[in-house]
Design brief:
- This protein is mainly β.
- Among the domains are: 74 residues, Immunoglobulin-like, CATH 2.60.40.60; 103 residues, Immunoglobulin-like (Sandwich), CATH 2.60.40; 104 residues, Sandwich (Immunoglobulin-like), CATH 2.60.40.60.
- The chain is built from 1 helix and 27 strands.
- The strands form 9 sheets. A 4-stranded mixed β-sheet has the order 8-15-14-11, with no helix packed on it.
- A hairpin with a 4-residue loop joins β3 and β4.
- The longest helix is centred in the C-terminal third of the chain and has 46 residues.
- The protein is elongated.
- This is PCDHB11 isoform 2.
Length: 432
């Protein structure tokens, strides 16, 4: 600020000395006569001191000295020089599984030391570091107050914990921001019943165990094995004998599921016993399952006993496979025999056809050889095959009779004079 001071006295009585307290970050400077400027001596921080009350004292040099005080207030304006700050660097939230959708599971909070719009904070979910985490379908955040909500029902057995980052940014220019880590732990609920691994409960006949009649009390018959998908005390299992053909003959250990003989066996005890074992967890409310098994009392393990019901389907399946193999083998054998018979018939047909068709050899020389079959083409009473040759330039179309291929030809059929070449005229007018 710039201000002036006047004193109507003269001389030393009119000379003025101006001052301010020394603990302030300001200084007074005299520019011209009776004019002063109030300046900052060091940087100001609005977040430390938002306003200053300054008392300016003007004193003359007269005797006695007279003075005047003037009070002024300096307000420090804000700039966006502070990022939002979370109340915690990390948050841990707990939510029980099977929650209702849109359940409020917790909140995050951040403050900004600035003022006005520079102090208004917006909240947002930052992209998760795990790319396989479907964060957008798990939680949401209110941008104005930082409330977190579960978007769907959570399952402890599928997702026990997950974490993500939350960002807080102000509305200054430029905007400043910060982030915090949020870890969500899903609490287990007793929503799974015990599952019996042994004996297998598959809806068929119960498992059969053999026990010798000479077994002593405490003899281990079998052991019921079960698991629970929950955790903690919800997965603590206890066993007890729920039903038995003869109560008191068998006992079940509560903590490990072992089925043992409780007393000595006698001849009066039935040979076949049916036991139902109850498996119960320690949750609230407790859940349970049952295991059914059969016990056969035998004199020795080599003694035949009733076959298990599961064996019948196995034999039926084996018989079906055997029948299929027999049918396939018969089909292949029949096809092979048919192929052999067809091959023999074809060979015989070809051989008979070759026997009925004449074959002639072509003599070597300049004349082209031809095979001629004269059966049924002339006036001869018998069929003959001849070996002939024909000149390429013959103009009279005459055939020269050389010799018959077939021996024992009767001369009577050829004419009375055997020394002369018989000449025959066939229906085509050729001379032989």
């Amino acid at each position: 600020m710039i201000f002036s001071i006047q004193d109507i006295d003269s001389g030393d009585n009119g000379r003025i000395v101006c001052s301010i307290p020394e603990d302030l970050p300001f200084v007074l400077k005299s520019s011209v006569e009776n004019y002063y400027t109030l300046e900052t001596e060091r940087p100001l921080d609005r977040e430390s001191t938002a306003e200053y009350n300054i008392t300016i004292t003007a004193t003359d040099l007269g005797i006695p000295r007279l003075k005047t005080e003037y009070n002024t207030t300096v307000l420090v304006s804000d700039v966006n020089d502070n990022s939002p700050t979370f109340t915690q660097t990390s948050y841990t939230l707990f939510v029980r599984e099977n929650n209702s959708p849109a359940l409020h599971i917790g909140s995050v909070s951040a403050t900004d030391r600035d003022s006005g719009t520079n102090a208004q904070v917006n909240y947002s979910l930052l992209p998760p570091q795990d790319p396989h985490l479907p964060l957008a379908s798990l939680v949401s955040i209110n941008a104005d107050n930082g409330h977190l909500f579960a978007l769907r029902s959570l399952d402890y057995e599928a997702l026990q914990a997950f974490e993500f980052r939350v960002g807080a940014s102000d509305r200054g220019s430029p905007a400043l921001s910060s982030e915090a880590l949020v870890r969500v732990l899903v609490l287990d609920a007793n929503d799974n019943s015990p599952f019996v691994l042994y004996p297998l409960q598959n809806g068929s006949a119960p498992c059969t165990e053999l026990v010798p009649r000479a077994a002593e009390p405490g003899y281990l018959v079998t052991k019921v094995v079960a698991v629970d998908g929950d955790s903690g005390q919800n997965a603590w299992l206890s066993y007890q004998l729920l039903k038995a053909t003869e109560p008191g003959l068998f006992s079940v250990w509560a903590h490990n599921g072992e089925v043992r003989i409780a007393r000595l066996l006698s001849e009066r005890d039935a040979a076949k016993h049916r036991l139902v074992v109850l498996v119960k967890d320690n949750g609230e409310p407790p859940r349970s399952a049952t295991a059914t098994l059969q016990v056969l009392l035998v004199d020795g393990f080599s003694q035949p006993y009733l076959p298990l019901p599961e064996a019948a389907p196995a034999h039926a399946q084996a018989d079906s496979i055997t029948i299929s193999l027999v049918v396939a083998l018969a089909s292949v054998s029949s096809l092979f025999l048919f192929s052999v018979l067809l091959f023999v018939v074809v060979r015989l047909c070809r051989r008979s056809r070759a026997a009925s068709v004449g074959r002639f050899s072509v003599p070597e020389g300049p004349f082209p050889g031809h095979l001629v079959d004269m059966s049924g083409t002339g006036t001869l009473s018998q069929s003959y095959q001849y070996e002939v040759c024909l000149t390429g330039g013959s103009g009279t179309n005459e055939f020269k009779f050389l010799k018959p291929v077939v021996p024992n030809i009767q001369a009577e059929g050829l004419g009375k004079n055997s020394e002369e070449n018989p000449t025959f005229r066939n229906s085509f007018g050729f001379n032989f």
